[in-house]
Amino acid sequence: MSQLSDTLHDVFASLGPVRIARMFSGYGVYHDDLMFALVVRDVLYLKTDAQTLPHFEALALPAFSFERQGRLMTTSYRQAPETVFEDRQAAALWARRAVEAALRTANAPRPTRKTKKKPGR
Length: 121
Description:
There is one protein chain. The chain has 4 helices and 6 strands, in the order H-E-E-E-E-H-E-E-H-H. It has helices at about 5-10, 55-60, 85, 90-105; strands spanning about 20-25, 25-30, 35-40, 45, 65-70, 70-80. The longest helix is centred in the last third of the chain and has 20 residues, at about 90-105. By secondary structure, it is an alpha+beta fold. A 6-stranded antiparallel sheet has the order 1-2-3-4-6-5.
């Protein structure tokens, strides 16, 4: 694991147990099997949604993005503020926001994909 991911059990202690699992070029951070954070290149990113995004934007915290097939892909994970590493109350607040965003996202209805009908059907 990375040096940062080794500290996350302490950072997110207010949530209870967290699980850190290797994925692609980083680590997923899970609480109750729900991924609420991501660590890539020793940077912590927290899950956002429409309700929590303004908190991240107010601090100008960047989104995690990556390039795929020449296109920039931006995710719903935003860099965590430095206060999560310095203040346990701040860590609890930001962790709760990320878990709630992950719960809302997991429970949101999925859009259905329309398939093209084949000619003659």
